[in-house]
Amino acid sequence: MWTVWLCIGVALGAFASGVAGLYVQKLLPEPHTSDRSRDMIGAIVGLISLLLALVLGTLVGSAYSFYSTQKSEMETFAARAIQLNLALTEFGPETAPARARMKETLQGVHLMVWGGAAPTPRALSVGEPLPHLRELDEYVASLDPKTPAQRQFAAAAIGDVAAIEQTRLLVSLQLASSVSWPLVVIVVSWALILFCGYGLLSRLNATTLTALGFGGFAVGSAIFLILELNQPFSGVFRIPSGAYDQMLDSLT
Question: Domain containing 48: what range?
Answer without folding.
Answer: 2-250
